[in-house]
Amino acid sequence: MFKSKSDLETFFYNNKKNLIQKWDHYFDIYERHFRKYKGKDIVLLEIGVSNGGSLKMWADYFGKNSKIYGLDIDPRCKEFENENINILIGSQSDLHFLNEVKNKIPKVDILIDDGGHFMNQQIISFEELFDHVKNDGVYLCEDIHTSYWLYFGGGYKRRGTFLEYSKNFIDQLNAFHSEQKQLKPNRFTHSVGSVHYYDSILVIEKMERTAPQNIVSGQLSFGNSKIANYKPNIKPIQKNKLLIFINKILRHFRFKSILWK
Fold first, then answer.
1. Is residue 120 within 8 Å of residue 138, measured between CB atoms?
2. Which fold has domain 7-206?
3. Distances in whole angstroms, Cα of residue 229 to Cα of each of 25, 112, 212
4. Contact at 8 Å (CB) between 140 and 113?
5. pLDDT per residue as tens digits for the range 241-258
6. CA-to-CA dists, residue 174 to 60, 115, 137, angstroms
7. DSSP-derived pairing of the beta strands 108-113 and 43-47
8. How many CA atoms lie within 13 A of 97 on its CB side?
9. How far is CA 198 from CA 25, 148, 204, 238, 248, in A?
10. Domain map of the chain by residue range?
């Protein structure tokens, strides 16, 4: 079945000017997470300007009311500035510079990290700029496959890679349900609605959250359907104290549990 191109793909394939380099599956991901902002008065920050093509693609896609900021270490990128594109020159791993960025620009709806792709750059940029994304905004980190490439400091399950670092986001997203003091709700838990992993891309959609509530509607299908104030058995309780003790020890050392039954 023929798949029609998105506006971003159309711009990309018709582009004859400033170079844009993307993996071919990125456009569907962009469309999925960015289309709600199309035509709106948004603020976008892209780390990594390169030849300026992607900034012009974003400006075309989001429309004349958008405000686009690009961040790059190369001062020549300043030539890509225009009425709604501003370029900030500095390193994405420079804490002082990133603080200056936060003071110079408003909070952003979309942040795209397409910068140097080294592990420290991706981690530092996230730690310093994630809070500068609006409460309902999107943080997108591209080319996270560099976490597997030796040149960038990567390797399968290698400590210090951005992918290994980001896997903690899954735990933090679900921390409301943790029984252990090592995992408690934090700012990430309270400010993120979803985390999406794709081939080479991580997308974090922000949303202010409180602890979820388990709720019930309808009647019991089996047993006494007239039980007043029925509440579901959300967390089954093991009555065998020895099994509880053993499994708590196993859990502490992160060993596989033994059967409860």
1. no
2. Rossmann fold (3.40.50)
3. 50, 48, 19
4. yes
5. 888 788 888 888 878 887
6. 37, 29, 20
7. parallel
8. 14
9. 10, 15, 11, 38, 34
10. 7-206
Cα separation, 214 vs 166, in Å, equals: 28
**Quick check: 229 pLDDT over 80?**
no
Is residue 90 within 8 Å of residue 71, measured between CB atoms? yes
Q: What is the pLDDT of residues 231-243, one digit of tens each?
A: 667 777 778 888 8
CA distance 141 to 117: 9
Query: Of residues 248 and 162, which shows the higher confidence score?
Result: 162
At residue 222, what is the residue type? F
User: Can you tell me the distance from the alpha carbon of 216 to that of 232, in angstroms, rounded to the nearest whole number?
Assistant: 8
The tokens describing 96, both together, are 């002082």
Give the containing element (helix H, strand E) for 193. Answer: strand 192-198
Q: Letter for the amino acid at 119?
A: M
Taking alpha carbons only, the member of 254, 92, 90 closest to residue 180 is 254
Give the pTM: 0.89
One-character DSSP codes across 58-112:
HHHHH-TT-EEEEEES-GGGGGG-BTTEEEEES-TT-HHHHHHHHHHS--EEEEE
Q: Which two tokens stand for residue 185?
A: 């709700």
Listed as own residue / partner, the contacts of 174-178 with beta carbons closer than 8 Å and 24 or more positions apart are 176/211, 176/212
Q: How far apart are CA 124 and CA 94, in angstroms?
A: 8
Q: Tokens for 57, please give them.
A: 């693609």
Q: Are 115 and 48 in contact (CB under 8 A)?
A: yes
